[in-house]
Amino acid sequence: MELVSRPRQGAYGAIFKLAGGAKVVIVDETVINFRGKEVYLWAAIDPETKKIVFLYPSYSRSYLAALKFFTLMMRFTGKPELVITDSGTSWLLED
Predict the structure, then answer these.
(1) The three-state (H, E, C) secondary structure of 4-63, written as one string
(2) How many Å apart are CA 79 and CA 70, to the nearest integer?
(3) Strand pairing partners for 31?
(4) CA distance 21 to 77
């Protein structure tokens, strides 16, 4: 696992780049409790290899958090051909 961090973002802004180049990704988010605070962990998974492509932590579950997740995911792993999501309203993104 390779840890990629941007110096100006600090420790919380660290992004984990795990595997890249997936043509199809399944994306979802889950809430975890970290030091007494709710943190949403956004994940992109390659269904063929069943490996995590990208992880991103966020304090909110909103359109802007989803947009940031997708922007960073595509910057580090490339643009997938197909994205599969659940029916959550956070995923309502324009192409």
Answers:
(1) ECCHHHCCCCCEEECCCCCCEEEEEEEEEEECCEEEEEEEEEECCCCEEEEEEEECCCCH
(2) 9
(3) 40
(4) 6
- The torsion angles phi and psi of 70, rounded to 5 degrees, stand at -65, -40
Tokens of 46: 């390659």
Q: Kindly report the pTM of this predicted structure.
A: 0.69
Q: 74-85: per-residue pLDDT in tens?
A: 888 888 888 888
In whole angstroms, how large is the CA radius of gyration of the chain? 13
With beta carbons less than 8 A apart as the criterion, state whether 87 and 49 touch.
no
Are 80 and 24 in contact, with CB atoms under 8 Å apart?
Answer: yes
With 90 as the cut, is the pLDDT of residue 33 above it?
Answer: yes
Which CATH homologous superfamily contains domain 2-87?
Answer: Ribonuclease H-like superfamily/Ribonuclease H (3.30.420.10)
